[in-house]
Amino acid sequence: MLNNLPDVLGWLKRYTFLLEVIMWLSGITALALMNPEGEHLFSFCPFSWLLESGCLGCGLGHAIAYLFRGEWQASWEAHPLALPALVLLAWRCVKLLHWQYKHFNYLTINKYHG
């Protein structure tokens, strides 16, 4: 049982990064598909539960949804940091996938040639 532990830990480490990419891309896709002008039914932000004005991130989801529709002015008015946030999330996904590809190839080469 303990002999397989390094294999299991390596598998978990490798696929944890992939899970993060899937979660970010799922969130971005959900924002792209949502109607930004629709009624605000629920928020995961605890600040919006406590404060009427919300927090500094309020409106970011709507702004990203407007970006996917090409409504730049509405996106800016909803939250000016939508485009940088979207670029940052896309960059994070690319970096994770690149790291996973590079690391997986390194492990595969060392496994068969080491």
Spans of at least 5 consecutive residues whose pLDDT stays below 50 are none
Rg (C-alpha, Å) = 20 Å
Helix content: over 70%
DSSP, total strands: 0
Taken as a percent bin, the fraction of beta residues is under 5%
- Terminal CA distance reads 23 Å
Mean of the pLDDT scores? Answer: 81
| Largest sheet, strands/sense/barrel | none
> What sort of overall outline do the alpha carbons produce when their principal axes are compared?
elongated
InterPro entries: DUF2752 (IPR021215)
Keywords: Membrane, Transmembrane, Transmembrane helix
Protein name: DUF2752 domain-containing protein
Organism: Pontibacter locisalis
Q: In words, what does this structure look like?
A:
- By secondary structure, the protein is mostly helical.
- It has a domain at 72-114.
- Helix content is 72%, strand content 0%.
- The chain has helices at 5-33, 46-50, 60-68, 72-78, 82-113.
- The longest helix is centred in the last third of the chain and has 32 residues, at 82-113.
- The radius of gyration is 20 Å and the shape is elongated.
- It starts with a helix and ends with a helix.
- The mean pLDDT is 81.
- The chain crosses the membrane at residues 15-35.
- InterPro entries: DUF2752 (IPR021215).
- Keywords: Membrane, Transmembrane, Transmembrane helix.
